Amino acid sequence: MSKRQQIKPASFRNIVDDLFENQKFHTNDNVQYKQTFSQVVLNDAQKAQIVYPIGYTPLNFFIIYQTDKYADHTFVSYQLDMVSFVRKSDGYIYGYYFNVNDQDRFRTNILKDSPKPITLSDTARIIPSQYLEVYNKINNSTVILSTSFNPDNIYATIQYSYDSRYVYQQLLPSGLSIFNGDDPVLTGLSKNLRDCNIKRI
């Protein structure tokens, strides 16, 4: 592998800028999705719910994302997930993912326009989704390599942004999964992610 092609750890700023823009996409059967990302702070009780894999050190920086589903432009349902950034001794930053349950839906403008991190309800439950991704710098691009080790849903992905689109390719045990629609369109960073404090990262 040439020096140009060597994989290196991505910087935290590039991870956020390149991979956590808000996005929208649709499937060929006219179902629309909007994903909105926002920095979130957890209280001590919520942090205590989190158990990390051995060898990973949490960076205490969290991003929540809400996926809103629409059919024929009529709201149908939502899902909330969260990524906690962690580091290993290899120098790479990783994202460890969680489902967020028992949390009411946020208004999209709250997630997008809040200058400060949002807070979860005290009743919110944070449950590991058994999904881990590593952030790589490849030829000046930030690329996700990931794996789901949930025994009920095993897969790997490669993800990156390109030309205002978000590319997501999933590899299942049965082979490459082809997305039934267009690549998501990127619509910009939420306000509290544009200048987030990363001095401690």
Describe this structure in words.
This protein has 4 helices and 13 strands. It has helices spanning 12-19, 44-48, 108-113, 191-194, and strands at 8-9, 22-26, 31-41, 57-71, 74-87, 93-101, 118-119, 125-138, 141-150, 153-162, 165-172, 175-177, 185-188. With 201 residues, it is mainly beta. A hairpin with a 2-residue loop joins strand 9 and strand 10. Strands 1, 2, 3, 4, 5, 6, 7, 8, 9, 10, 11, 12 and 13 form a 13-stranded mixed sheet that branches. It has a domain at 8-129 and 182-194. The mean pLDDT is 91.
Report low-confidence residues grouped into runs of 5 or more.
none
| Helix-strand topology string | EHEEHEEEHEEEEEEEH
SS-based class: mainly beta
- Separation of the first and last Cα atoms: 29 Å
Largest sheet: 13 strands, mixed
Helix content: 10-25%
- DSSP helical segment count: 4
Radius of gyration: 17 Å
Mean pLDDT: 91
Q: How much of the residues is beta strand, in percent?
A: over 45%
Rough shape? globular
What's the total count of β strands? Answer: 13
Tell me the layout of helices and strands.
Layout: E1 8-9, H1 12-19, E2 22-26, E3 31-41, H2 44-48, E4 57-71, E5 74-87, E6 93-101, H3 108-113, E7 118-119, E8 125-138, E9 141-150, E10 153-162, E11 165-172, E12 175-177, E13 185-188, H4 191-194
Parallel strand pairs: 3-7
Antiparallel strand pairs: 1-8, 2-3, 2-13, 3-4, 4-5, 5-6, 6-8, 8-9, 9-10, 10-11, 11-12
Distinctive features:
201 residues, 11% helix, 4 helices, mainly beta, 13-stranded mixed beta sheet, 13 strands
